[in-house]
Amino acid sequence: MTAALPDLPPVPSRFGFAFSADGRWATCLRSAQDSVVLERWDLTWPAVNPGPSLRTLDDAALPDGAGPGGGIIDRRCGALPLNDGRVLVVRPAVGDHGEPAGHGTLVLAEPTSAGLRPVRSWPVPEMLAGFLLASPGQAQTALLVAVEDERHSRIWRVSPSSPVLEPVLRIPGVLSGGVWADEGRTLALDHDGAGHRTEGILVDLRERTWQRFWSVSDTTGDRIAAYSPRSGALAVTTTTPGAQQRGAPQIGLRLPGGGPVRFPENLNRSAAYRTPLAFDASGERLLVREIAGAAARLAVYATGDDRITPVPGPPGMLWPPAHWGGDGRVHVRFSAPHQPPTLATVRRPAPSGWDLAAHPSDGAAAWRGAELVELSGPAGPIEAIVYGGPGWRTRPRLVLALHGGPLSAWRYEFEPLFQYLAAAGAAVVAPNYRGSTGYGDAHLRPVIGDWGGPDLDDVVHVADALAEGRGTALPRPVVLGGSYGAFLALLAACRRPDLWSGCVALAPFTSAAGLHRTANGAVRDRVSRLSRLDAHDEQDAGRDVLRACDALTAPLLVAHGVRDEAVPVEQSRALRRRLLELGRTEGVDFDYLETAGDHHEVVQAWSPVLREAVVRFCLTAGRALALDKEGR
């Protein structure tokens, strides 16, 4: 009899946060299953209220009719609140498979009791991606930065009273970020040009010119992170080697009065991965996110005396953007294992008090919590996020989940797939083995140029200990991974077939060299920088899934999206062909599923069909599933 899957509320995810220029309003998109809606937050509330008020705005009245609600809103959209509470919504001109699809759409909408009422709309030609920036000051204007293709971006000025968009400037390369360097004339942007490196540029909107502003070298990634118009303080980052761990940027400051950028020792000498978020109203304090291990916290850096002070808060994960208002409140996106992403408000960084905005549709009571556990590894302790309560080691089903990357990690945040597994009764162990970020350079460095080496040793060591503790009465763990984690999961299942009762590989690649041959330019560059491609002798057969998979005995589930631009679906198709050549029977020894999704959708198992397949496979480890090739 097939086990019943847990009946959980729709899995919510909030993304695309943006703030109005005056900080009164915030907007974001919230997705739950196939539905995407716009949310608007009122950030000015009396002290007696528990936090900001939230409204979900129906977009059915907006033009286009392409979104799930009949309007234009889907996961590709962006939104920006204006100072008067109206909202701009932009939808790129891109089809379901990433191809150009006519004009994009920009809509100005007014919230009403029934949802969003369109006020004005503009067609936007040649926009594969785009984002909106609020103009500072009192003028109700904004900028639209449209990425036309991989070679050009265009800046448009948006005036709600004008029937047409005003073209400002076309710039070669791809633009991102966006920080005002004054009260509305000069905009700082991150610019990706030839060679896929990032540099900071300044755009003079009045003169319609641009110039390079922050560029350390031809091999670094250099970004402009925050600026204080009041004090003139500037925060930038660079990936040039420094005191922080590999993969973490150094933070540079240019203090009021100008002068060169300097890199304060106390701001950069830390094992924590620090990212500048925002200056306070005076420009004398910089809000910083610190990632230490699997969790993140806020800290405040005082520019005058080179002192950084942690901000106490609940354990979890934080993301930019952040807004530090004149009232002392900080607003930032927050999540924890039991808390879907929401808007967190820190009433004052010192002393601090936190408000986490909730919404009934989040289904907060249904979500499982997790704990941080230290496991023994062959080269030192390994931190893991564990679902399953005090008896997790002896749960009937145990899933060892491997993260993507490299230069990535599991974070102490809401993971929908883990929630479904935990609700179904499985324990989930998500370790941050060597190669994971957040634990210092010594923990990360061993995997650079050595994919499937020290990290695989850690995975096998942890699994060996878990399997030994479970004895012979309980099934062996299931190993599950996405992207790079799927590559590791396959290698682990091949190296030690006896350790596993099943293997799940979501959007895997078969080897570093194989991915390098088939991936796009940006991915190929990353593989070249972080892996070793010149070794093809016998000792590396264990790092090539196609050469090692004859040892695979555990039931296998492979899933890949046909629209995957990061790891081409041909990687999984090659594995399927190899398994068939070895005499394995599809539907008995292994199951293969292609979906219409892209890389992110498959790795995160957002599709209900895929998520159900993964959960059922993990619950019934040891028995293969018959899956429809089209994912129905």
Summarize the structure.
The protein is α+β, with helices and mostly antiparallel strands and about 625 residues long. The chain is globular and about 70 Å long.
What topology, given as strand order, has the largest sheet?
27-28-30-29-31-32-33-34
Low-confidence stretches: 622-632
Approximate shape = globular
Biggest sheet architecture: 8 strands, mixed
Q: Structural class of the secondary elements? A: alpha+beta
Radius of gyration: 25 Å
Strand share of the residues?
35-45%
- Number of helical runs? 11
Give the beta-strand count: 34
Please report the distance between the alpha carbons of the first and last residues: 21 Å
Mean pLDDT, to the nearest integer, reads: 86
Q: Assign a percent range to the helix content.
A: 10-25%
Word description of this protein:
This protein has 11 helices and 34 strands. The C terminus is likely disordered. The chain is an alpha+beta fold and 632 residues long.
Which terms would index this structure?
alpha+beta; 632 residues; eight-stranded mixed β-sheet; 11 helices; 34 strands; disordered C terminus; seven-stranded antiparallel β-sheet
Ordered list of secondary-structure elements with their pairings:
Layout: E1 12-19, E2 25-32, E3 35-42, E4 53-57, E5 78-81, E6 87-91, E7 104-112, E8 115-124, E9 129-134, E10 142-147, E11 152-158, E12 166-172, E13 174-180, E14 186-192, E15 198-204, E16 209-214, E17 222-227, E18 234-238, E19 250-254, H1 265-268, E20 273-279, E21 285-292, E22 295-302, E23 307-324, E24 330-336, E25 339-346, E26 354-356, E27 371-377, E28 380-387, E29 398-402, H2 416-423, E30 427-431, H3 441-444, H4 454-470, E31 478-482, H5 484-495, E32 502-506, H6 512-518, H7 521-530, H8 545-548, E33 556-561, H9 570-581, E34 590-595, H10 599-603, H11 608-619
Parallel strand pairs: 29-30, 29-31, 31-32, 32-33, 33-34
Antiparallel strand pairs: 1-2, 2-3, 3-4, 5-6, 6-7, 7-8, 9-10, 10-11, 11-12, 13-14, 14-15, 15-16, 17-18, 18-19, 20-21, 21-22, 22-23, 23-24, 24-25, 25-26, 27-28, 28-30
